[in-house]
Amino acid sequence: MSYERGIQAMRLQMPDTIPHTEYVSNPTLVRHVTGIDPSIPGREGEAWKQFMIRLNYDLVWRTDSPPFEKAPHAWMGSARYSETQELKPATYPFANEEEVLSFDPVAATGVPDRQETRQLFERNWRATQSDLPFLVVPSGYYNTVFTWCIVTFGWELFMAAAMADPKRFDRVLEGFYQLSKPIFEAAAEIPLPALICHDDIVWTAGAVFHPDWYRRFVFPRYKKLWAPLREAGIPILFCSDGNFTEFVPDIADAGANGFIFEPLTDLEMVAARYGKTHVIIGNADCRILTYGSREDIYAEVKRCADIGRSLPGYFFAVGNHIPYNVPVENAMYYFDLIVELGKR
């Protein structure tokens, strides 16, 4: 674990071992590793800090955002992320396509103040980096463009409205772009080691719209949003769930310096085309950690290590995260293997 190793990888300087990060929602695993129950009020922060120390993290995944208190929000239900999680029924603030197409994000929500946003991001980033000086601590933003549509309308109305009248829906997308623009501008004024740009643009099977739709309406907006960060020399790490293999070249062309992805996106292809020029994070499969044998887990870690060992900016991570139902003994075997197989 070291800030130095993480920042070397972020700068494509080939640290002596493959660095490491994870996304974990497994309190039993945290208790096993640290002896601290993260569900106890007042102990959560220390539990997770000790977890990252003991498991040799080099980078922490995080995003920030203004509150957007007036923004309408769809709740589509949820997968179960903990044993005690209450599952709520889905609720949607829009009833039909016309309501979606008539929606004005700027008028309804208000554009965040750039200076206030900069102060919020810088305050939160500096506090986190001060608390975790042994890690590379980026800032980040979750909604960007595409995800704004998911969280506002829900998948079905989003997709139906976008196809019903692409021209009018482009106006809606432009509104969401305007909400995000001052956030990226503000982040560019902070001496960040990187910014994570999250946008869930695909499903497990890949694109939900024709690729031309993304290339007309989404990726040009990425290029404009990322321009201030590029000018400031701040690396942009693009992150999406699902399989975005076919869009990796588009995202790189828009200005991304790295990719964070699940096992569905093709690590071998990304490594072959961008492994020497971009940061690459993830791709190990939590399904193998959950249901696989020790032999399966070994083969999965070896696959990632064999590809990532020659890449200066590769980080180990379970790409689709370590949820509560991953057996502790399997997760611990995985952590042992990334140490064993991560040597260069």
Task: Write the CATH architecture name.
Answer: Alpha-Beta Barrel
Count of runs of 4 or more consecutive helical residues: 16
CATH class: Alpha Beta
Helical content band: 40-55%
- Name the shape in a single word: globular
Q: What is the total tally of β strands?
A: 8
What's the order of the H and E elements? HHHHHHEHHHEEEHHEHEHEHHEH
Structural class, by secondary structure, is alpha/beta
Taking the sheet with the most strands, its summary is:
6 strands, parallel
Amino-to-carboxy terminus distance: 15 Å
- Rg (C-alpha, Å): 20 Å
Strand order, sheet with most strands: 1-2-5-6-7-8
**Which percent range describes the beta-strand content?**
5-15%
Care to describe what's here?
This protein has 344 residues and is an alpha/beta fold. It has a single domain (3-341), classed as TIM Barrel. Helix content is 48%, strand content 8%. The chain contains 16 helices and eight strands. The protein has a six-stranded parallel β-sheet with strand order 1-2-5-6-7-8, with helices on both faces. A two-stranded antiparallel sheet has the order 3-4. Helix 6 (114-131) crosses helix 9, helix 9 runs parallel beside helix 11 (219-232) and helix 15 runs parallel beside helix 16. The mean pLDDT is 96.
